[in-house]
Amino acid sequence: MAGDGSDQRALQYEQTLMYGRYTQELGVYAKEEAARLRESGQRRSVSDRSRTLDLLEYDKGRCAKCRRSGYPYVLEPPAQDFISVCTVRCQKFLISRVGEDWIFLILLGLLMALVSWVVDFCIAICLQAQKWMYGGLDSNVFLQYLAWVTYPVVLITFSAGFTQILAPQAVGSGIPEMKTILRGVVLKEYLTFKTFVAKVIGLTCALGSGMPLGKEGPFVHIASLCAALLSKFMSLFGGIYEEPGGIGIKDIGLIGMKNESRNIEMLAAACAVGVGCCFAAPIGGVLFSIEVTSTFFAVRNYWRGFFAATFSAFIFRVLAVWNRDEETITALFKTRFRLDFPFDLQELPAFAVIGIASGFGGALFVYLNRLIVQFIRKQKAINRFLMKKRLLYPALVTLLISTLTFPPGFGQFMAGKLTQKESLVTLLDNRTWAKQGIAEDFDYIGHSQAWKHPQLNVFVTLVLFIVMKFWMSALATTIPVPCGAFMPVFVIGAAFGRLVGESMAAWFPDGIHTDGTIYPIVPGGYAVVGAAALSGAVTHTVSTAVIVFELTGQISHILPVMIAVILANAVAQSLQPSLYDSIIRIKKLPYLPELGWGHHEKYNIRVEDIMVRDVRYITLNCCYRDLHNVLLTGHLKTLALVESAESMILLGSIERAQLQSLLSQQLGRSKRLEYIRERAAAEKKHLSVVSIPGSEDGSQRASQEVRFQISTEESSFSPTRPAPQKPLKPALKRPSVVERPTEIPTSPNDNSGIALKNLFCASPDTEGLEEPPPSLKSFFGDDGDVEDDMTIREISEWEEKQLDEQVNFNNCKIDPAPFQLVERTSLHKTHTIFSLLGLDHAYVTSIGRLIGVVSLKELRKAIEGSVTVKGVKVRPPLASFRDSGTSSSENEATELHKLWDRHKSMSLPREHTPSESDEKSQ
Amino acid sequence: MAGDGSDQRALQYEQTLMYGRYTQELGVYAKEEAARLRESGQRRSVSDRSRTLDLLEYDKGRCAKCRRSGYPYVLEPPAQDFISVCTVRCQKFLISRVGEDWIFLILLGLLMALVSWVVDFCIAICLQAQKWMYGGLDSNVFLQYLAWVTYPVVLITFSAGFTQILAPQAVGSGIPEMKTILRGVVLKEYLTFKTFVAKVIGLTCALGSGMPLGKEGPFVHIASLCAALLSKFMSLFGGIYEEPGGIGIKDIGLIGMKNESRNIEMLAAACAVGVGCCFAAPIGGVLFSIEVTSTFFAVRNYWRGFFAATFSAFIFRVLAVWNRDEETITALFKTRFRLDFPFDLQELPAFAVIGIASGFGGALFVYLNRLIVQFIRKQKAINRFLMKKRLLYPALVTLLISTLTFPPGFGQFMAGKLTQKESLVTLLDNRTWAKQGIAEDFDYIGHSQAWKHPQLNVFVTLVLFIVMKFWMSALATTIPVPCGAFMPVFVIGAAFGRLVGESMAAWFPDGIHTDGTIYPIVPGGYAVVGAAALSGAVTHTVSTAVIVFELTGQISHILPVMIAVILANAVAQSLQPSLYDSIIRIKKLPYLPELGWGHHEKYNIRVEDIMVRDVRYITLNCCYRDLHNVLLTGHLKTLALVESAESMILLGSIERAQLQSLLSQQLGRSKRLEYIRERAAAEKKHLSVVSIPGSEDGSQRASQEVRFQISTEESSFSPTRPAPQKPLKPALKRPSVVERPTEIPTSPNDNSGIALKNLFCASPDTEGLEEPPPSLKSFFGDDGDVEDDMTIREISEWEEKQLDEQVNFNNCKIDPAPFQLVERTSLHKTHTIFSLLGLDHAYVTSIGRLIGVVSLKELRKAIEGSVTVKGVKVRPPLASFRDSGTSSSENEATELHKLWDRHKSMSLPREHTPSESDEKSQ
């Protein structure tokens, strides 16, 4: 909630940029940071803290590639010389290759194939171990039960605990987060090495437990992590490669820009690799990742995904061949349906029924999943209890599910002893269970036997399997471990398809075809159709059809599959958001909802209907007092710069942070010291005070500042690092512009510096700290090495005088071309432009005159107002688990609330971020 | 070449629009129009002509859907009343359904499936007829030869002639045109019923001739035609549906906007349907159409393509079942490769070799195709001869090709007697020719026998087939008939793959696998790989892989196919543009080249490096003289409006046409008549002249004008129909604004009206007419029914006075938010923004100050400068065939040249359209 400001200050410089950026998770981050600082016990100034926040944010928040060009400046000169002199030649060749996309994609594919294979291998071992334990204890049912239940509980608990401790960001699927990141939003810590380790190990343990969890979603995240880390690693070479040429800051900016956009392209490719190497389905992977993560897809990036996913899938399957698991490269779940007559035309209604039923089922699954989260959250008692013992919830859920699947218990009625993979293999089998009986001539006697219960017929087993697995999967995916829902849903779909297929086979024992030849019905084909339809319905994609072909290695059922998937999508999309969109909304990630199917509303709403007419603006000839007032009352991250209040001609937009720094410069200590000096010189009484702005620590800080400044110049493509505008002096030459915290007035207890203090105390980065008043005090008390003999009244007078001066915008970075709309632009068009360009807000102008502003918030409200989406405004699932991060006390949250309330009562300016504004506190 | 102005006047109102529009083909159109006018022999005024051009263009150029809301105004009131009163209730239900997308898509799918099936059926009959004739005459080789050769020559000649006469736009593939149209460009006559008929019949005849031509590209065009016509048809209901509600102009605008964007979505879906129903490949169809036609793809439109293509493919195959051709729905070219061990890992290098070789082959094909066009064009003598006898070229080419394939002749060495389909079926066969011999146990003995020559072995036959078909296909696709190149390339690729496969089979007779089991090599699998790779290389797509799976019904070779396709693409893309891009450039369609693979250049180039600094602008307080001067010297379609020459603050942009109308209003006759009247009233000497602006004809014209005006208000989404801006008076209320030609000064021979005449004589719509001076004269002489007693000098003085007045922009439509860039925006980003938003130009500003402009032209130059594309700056293939359209004389072109030269010598303002500016005359 709090703390969004520390980066908003640096955000959104260029409005026409490709990808708008938001940081929603900063509140969490600020809390963690606060805890760390408190533990270290050092008395640091607020300025240090906020700068630390800034720096860390720049380091972590920026998607990894951007950092590349920052590296050269980090290297000490001798090391740099050594490297550049000695190994330039051999490195140059190496590096000139390393820089190319295809090398990167090959490495990414290779790495992910290895990860996928190793994870699969470990999961298989885990599952085997459970079976072995269970099998070894067959003398005693109770011991068997203990073994059967304890094993997954331990694994899931370990997975949940490990993930919580190492990187809470690794929890869940990852696809919603990647969708948000690909929209251009920076999510803290989502692409770090720690998250990678937590996700891989957590996922392996979670899947090794045998719970109905999937690996697809997490693999999308893992692949993105891989891509981010790999590019970070390769930037070690790349940085050296790009540096010796003696390129100036301008060129670094270019590289940064290149990296920024390339980074997004590579992440998109990585998502494809994730799905591709998970299922050995390159085409399906590319399509699925596009459907799931993109709104507008650049066809020129298509080949990247295909290239990397194909390579990855190839290596993944080659590893299986080398490991002697397979004779040659084949599909993961190879089917052997007959080719000459895959299905009869008259079977198509049955396939259509599967599609429609799957559509309802998919919507129900998404709804059920959300319902469970809501239920747990609403029960305050449960919630508080679970929050304290956060590993209890996973353990309880696992206990429940594994108890129910215990083979000698209820599990015997629902093929409980089969793993997910075994279930799928048996479900896709090309023989008919109902007619031929199972035991007779099966290859997988051990497995398929599980479906046949001596007392029950196979239909009952299937129905029980479907019903039980349905709620189990919906429940299991709420466990805070790295897990996806695709595979469980896929299996349920296959079981449903099989049920329909077996029914058809029982109904028409000799097939439907009437032309003499008997073509019996293939229930396995129905299973394929059902799997594609249900997973398509849950994820709102049609590419599950392609995944299914690649998984089974047969495309003979293409038309039934396509028909069923499209029908399922049509039904599901009209009932519920996709699972990933549902999670995005539950987690309150910054998003722009898709326009629904209803058309008319979007064209009837115009920008003038939704825009905010009361735009905060500053004029070119305003004085600092105006600036101060605007900053105190406004809440937008950027402010419009107009020519004059009369003409209202929009000249550009300025970030809030820029204005704050302008103000702090004007009212800052150095300015006052200068004033004192002048006064002293004029009065010829006092000694002139030498105005060295800081101690040794200060100069070190300044050098950091310079580096920081340079790094802001790296990528003019990113909103945080704008290119200097020609007509203005480049900000680089004046690092002091950013150094505002050191310039806060030194006398803390007088109300003269109140104008500034209001601003900075209220600025959200201090809100995140749990005890601002003492630290502020200590900060103000700390710094007493410069003589300041002004009285409170003098300062107050001086400040008043300063505030009346006219603002000098020369050192201020102005975005000269913020995106503009016209009053009559339709909602549909606005939505398209916002999602195409990844905008955060746009000004509404009328012949150059500013008349309003539309932000993502207004747009979202308008869309949700016109396109009703049901019941998604819920609190995040187990939000307390995730939000509190590494800190463990409940008090902190209370303190934060207090802080928040106090700030609110003081009516200080706050930064409202769009997606959080509807709920003020978490 | 000439005539671009008549629509540019109405173009590009809103700069932030989604799809920029260009009309390059207007020159051709203007010529046709001129010829028609000349033939009709009526003496019409220039104003009439240009207005006719306007109206026709609005009617035809706008993609069909936009016209919907115009219909109510065309219906006469009684008819409308009758309809709305009598059948409102039953229609309402019908129409409320008709309006929905899925009904439209189903109808489209159904229609296209029927078309595809009927075309296939007719082609099959044609081919059978040829075989029957050839077989029946086996007594005499000469007669056989005559029959073999005459049949295709007649068919191709008919096809060429028919297409030329009915709709020359139907010639060729259609994919390049669709790519251009989907970019937002309006191509004249490309989506009319005439073109549909010409394309379907021409295609059937062309393919029925047995030439190596394909049906894919034309089917993309046919599907788009279907979609356009269907939506036009459905708008008959829709128009009624939307009208009776009594919605005002604002709402009509909304509907128009909706239709405009929906239209593009539907056309994109139609492209998918085209490929889908051509090959019964829904998934491949969608992907191929996306890759081939889109730059940025909106994922939300994905389902449309899938839905329609699936339905279409389904119906297409169901028709085959109903016709008893097939037992059930299967793939078109079903293969029967073994499933358990499709290929060995060690065969992968061979697949990779196929991929790389196909890459080179694909590039060579594109190059060869262009070379042939270039060669024919360069040879002036040949060109002139062919231009006169335009059916000779198709006939000659057909004669050559069919002579070479004559089975008893050279055809016996290259399986000449097989049709394309038969070749493909035999090439994909799962038995090995080299080892087993062909004659032994083949199903298709008759067909596969063709590959085995008694004297030659099968390798020689295959090599000859590949080499001969290669150049034949490249040659045949230059014939001006509706034809594609996909299928021939596909067959050649399959033959090449087969060749490699047979070689491998001969080399490793017992397969490569060493683990005991013998898995012989499957040459058919190589053929599949080769087909996908070569067609992928020629079209620069990877989705040919999916098409190949759907065509063969087997996905077992997925990894080899993917690897080969990606390698082929990598090689081909680095050597040549895709076939479609090559045609786009050859035809000089307006395009924005893709950014190549080389990265650095694009980031080093900035907007400031490429922008035009000498921007033509007008100031808010300028006088008409400035306007006049700017119009005389400038050449851009829109002009920037700045606050003042000192501040240079960009307020918006105004279309040239708007300014012209402002000027003509100021200097126009009505104004002068008013002046005369005032003078008369003041002097009390003369009788006041009643200023009825026109005769009966004129009032009728005015009513037309009103309708036209209203239709411009329909869609503010389209550049031609901007929504009225609030601060300005809506232009609708003053239809006279557009009525400028009637207001041209009546005294023709004095030099007082020269200012206006200069403007309008030079305006490109009159350039397209072959004899402007006489018609101008006749126009000026025509209109003498109003008394005008001013002398030349008086008029001159009056005009000078008028020119010194300040411009009143109140009635002028101003685009208040033209797209703005910053100096430091990189080329890469500029390209992305231009292609995302379909921009035509963007202003470069620095804090609101206008400092430059970048148009598509500069951008293209910059991209082509940095990303070298080889040898594509050639003249269009058989341009003279297409350009001259229905007119037949060479003189016309000469006259146009003269006209052009004169205009140039007079240094009058001309509209330079980006893609034509590098070559002034065709």
Descriptive account of the structure:
The structure is a homodimer of 922-residue chains. The first copy, chain A, is mainly alpha-helical and 922 residues long. Chain A has 40 helices and 8 strands. In chain A, the strands form 2 sheets. In chain A, strands 2-3-4-5 form a 4-stranded mixed β-sheet. A 3-stranded mixed β-sheet of chain A has the order 6-7-8. In chain A, strand 7 (841-846) and strand 8 form a beta hairpin. In chain A, helix 11 (216-242) packs antiparallel against helix 12. Chain A is elongated, with a radius of gyration of 31 Å. The interface between A and B is large, with 107 and 108 residues.
* Poorly predicted runs of 5 or more residues of chain A: 1-30, 40-79, 239-257, 437-444, 688-786, 866-922
β-strand number of chain A: 8
Oligomer: homodimer
The radius of gyration over CA of chain A amounts to 31 Å
Q: Order of strands side by side in the largest beta sheet of chain A?
A: 2-3-4-5
Alpha-beta classification of chain A: mainly alpha
